[in-house]
Amino acid sequence: MIKEIREPSVAQYANEIRLNALSIILDKGGGYLTQASSAAEILATLFARVLKLSLEKDRLPLECPIDSYVPFGGSAYYGEKSSLGDRLFISPGHYAMAVYCTLAAVGILPPEALEAFGADGSCLEAIGNDFCPGFETNAGTLGQTISIAAGVALSRKNRLDSGKVYVFISDGELQSGQTWEAIQAAVHYRLDNLVIVIDNNFHQVEGLTKDVMNVEDILDRLRAFGADAVRIDGHNPEDLAKAMLRQTPGKPNAVICDTDPTFNMDFLKEYEPFLHYFRINDANRDSVEKQRHLLSGVKSYD
Amino acid sequence: MIKETGVHAKNLIKWAQNKDNVVVLTADLGSSCEVKEFSRVFPSRYYSMGVAEQNMVSWAAGMAREGYYPMLHTFSVFMYRRALDQIEMSVAYSNLPVAFVGFLPGLMTPGGPSHQATNDLAVLRSIPNLRIYETGDATDVETVLEEAYRQKGPVYIRMLRGEIPRLFRDSPVNKYQPCRLLREGEGILIFSSGIMTGRIGQAVEQLAESGLSIRHVHISRIKPLETETILRYIAGIKYGVLTVENHSIIGGLGSAIAEIMSETGPSLPLKRIGIPDAYSRGGSFEYQCGLNNLTADQVVTAAKNLTGSNCREEDFQGTAAATEYFDQKMKQVVIKK
């Protein structure tokens, strides 16, 4: 039922993430499409090049109980936890579609699972909660998961685990006070096993981040807080892998990934700067179909 | 009344001795929450998080996910007001074992409304998965930790610090009692909680001596309430039920009892004594209790009113009377200035 984890190719994964996302929004009539586009290379690189996961299970749980007690978490889709393995925390819950599309692209979820996205009773909820595949926290309320991930990183440091804790956050979350409380504390406790990956796509609900509430200079701010920060092109797999795998002794590693939410989705440019949620209508359906056709024709991933 | 000091400080160290997964997190108020000594005895199990409660709560959720039992120590008010979303989404929704050990409940701080947890129960009672305890004496303080730990889920504790009464010396001493029958009678039933149970002891004696038969029950687990037991206590009561709490009359013990009574039908009058629906002032506990009609006198008057004798109209108007009284007091304060 579950595909083998395939030979890793960042470009191929990223292309499939975008393809999967386009299929979902064509099916559902809308969704958080641009987030899948801005984060495609980041998520693809994490799975292809960075994360050490134990994915030897031949069948992963997919059914999701509705009651409040959840016997397994969404992180079960990343395999057994071990002292050597890495952990991935997704903070912005609305990236759920991007995450599920990634899990399908890399073979952790069967492709047909995506049909249940957002359906009543499905564990593929539209906003990620701790029982949704790929999520370990209730991520819908922004700015909390970085603290949770840091608490996990501290616990793992106490245990002398060699695996790292990756937390994926969005640039809008840098407007939230708790994010900076968490960075302050992660620096205080010298959490060099914590990697903060920021999808800096310059957009949020109400338009450009710089207009809604400026967060620049992000690099200076992170360094001023004591993090070991770098800023890179978030669509370049080489830069991404190198930055995320850096050793940063005594400090958390912060990777600012500058991204474009219309990357390989040119038809979205006419909606600038309001790209947070994309709704399909009769007028734009053709351009979405065309984009999907274009991406599905991509044969070479070099 | 026997008084003891530093009960939690000593008890926590003793209790946590053989529980390596118990860690304490504080938001710069460890020394004000009786965990200073804990930090000396177990330095590696004590985490100072700075004045940043939201991060502290979510951080604790991360540690709980890794097998720790984080016990957050700060003033109640700074937990439930400053970090409510974190309590709900980082901890309660995921049903994680985290203990919110809240100090200075209700009016027990001289600090005024910024420091007063006067509606914590109203807010937190509505959170699924969260169990709520309120300690009223040294025995409650000592036994609540094991009770909380055994739940393997989130708990909120209204904790007492400093000099506190030892009211309960019954056995088994090592078991937390969610609800205690302190006096048997059938005229009036008084439910009290927290520090108020000790404070109204004398008023209850006085009423009993004046010939009124009083059944007095101490409630130390606010959620879930022992509904069946409470209904048994209500059964056979002649005149009415009185609730006394160091909390707003909205949403706390009084409201919880009202919910039970209104749904299950014992047709008895209910009078809630608590903090009126208004912000109080800073000052000593005595001063604030007077200001807010949270006094033994009020208990005596309310009990007599419930029996129908010695009735004064204004005392029977509940919230309105209390608010009016408070308003008058406030006016006096302002005028004095």
Question: Which keywords apply here?
Answer:
heterodimer; A: alpha/beta; Rossmann fold; 5-stranded parallel β-sheet; B: alpha/beta; 2 domains; 7-stranded mixed β-sheet; 14 helices; 39% helix; 21% strand
Description:
The complex is a heterodimer of chains A (302) and B (337). Chain A has helices spanning 10-28, 33-50, 96-106, 145-158, 177-188, 209-213, 218-224, 237-244, 285-296; strands at 30-31, 87-90, 165-170, 194-200, 203-204, 207-208, 228-233, 253-258, 278-279. Chain A is globular, with a radius of gyration of 18 Å. In chain A, β3, α5 (177-188) and β4 form a beta-alpha-beta unit. By secondary structure, chain A is an alpha/beta fold. Chain A has one domain (10-296): Thiamin diphosphate (ThDP)-binding fold, Pyr/PP domains (Rossmann fold, 3-Layer(aba) Sandwich), CATH 3.40.50. In chain A, the strands form 3 sheets. Chain A has a 5-stranded parallel β-sheet, with helices on both faces. Chain A has a two-stranded antiparallel sheet with strand order 1-9. In chain A, strands 5-6 form a two-stranded antiparallel ribbon. The mean pLDDT of chain A is 91. In chain A, α1 packs antiparallel against α9 and α4 (145-158) runs parallel beside α5 (177-188). The longest helix of chain A has 19 residues, at 10-28. Chain B starts with a strand and ends with a helix. Chain B is globular, with a radius of gyration of 20 Å. Chain B has 14 helices and 14 strands. Chain B has 2 domains: 2-166, 3-Layer(aba) Sandwich (Rossmann fold); 179-336, Rossmann fold (3-Layer(aba) Sandwich), CATH 3.40.50. Chain B is an alpha/beta fold. In chain B, α1 runs parallel beside α7 (138-150), α3 packs parallel to α5 and α9 (201-209) runs parallel beside α13 (296-307). The A-B interface holds A 68-70, 129-130, 136-138, 140-141, 143-145, 147-156, 158-159, 177-178, 181-182, 184-185, 188 and B 44, 47, 49-50, 52, 54-55, 57-68, 85-86, 89-90, 93-95, 128-129.
